[in-house]
Design brief:
The protein is about 65% helix and about 0% strand. The protein has about 140 residues and is an all-alpha fold. It has one domain. Helix 2 crosses helix 5.
């Protein structure tokens, strides 16, 4: 009769040790950049952006805003991914993302558009991941 192997004893692992989140913030920023690029290009996602007051394609001025935001988010993602980015600049970008994510969480949660409120979860993820990046950079010094 075969004996079953005993499971290893439970070990409490701090979340910081268990998960490498280095690429989470750049992934979220790239997703945000793609969404903004779609809005700028005329995707009919107005109901889930800018307060949801423009169902369908956004008006030209908001498409311009999205057209500006998209490369800014992409540049932030690339700055965080690049090994050439100085630590001080990486810290500044991460802190800016904490602010943008926090503001986005509040603004999207208060949106009159129920579908847009989903972005508050996304924004909270961005704020949290960025905050973890700031903490990791601080510990590395």
């Amino acid at each position: 009769m075969a004996t079953l192997a005993r499971p290893a004893p439970a070990r409490v692992v701090c979340f910081d040790e268990a998960v490498d989140t280095t690429h989470v913030t750049p992934l979220l920023l790239t997703t945000l950049s793609a969404f903004q690029a779609g809005l700028a290009a005329g995707a009919p996602w107005g109901r889930v952006s800018f307060g949801g007051t423009h169902p369908g394609v956004l008006p030209p001025r908001l498409r311009v805003v999205s057209g500006i935001a998209s490369p800014v988010y992409l540049a932030a993602a690339l700055a965080l991914l690049s090994e050439r980015t100085p630590p001080r600049a990486r810290d500044l970008v991460s802190r800016a993302c904490v602010g943008v994510g926090t503001a986005g969480t509040v603004v999207n949660a208060l949106s009159p558009s129920p579908p847009e409120r989903v972005w508050s979860v996304f924004s909270l993820a961005l704020a949290t991941a960025s905050w973890r990046d700031v903490r990791r950079e601080r510990r590395a010094r």
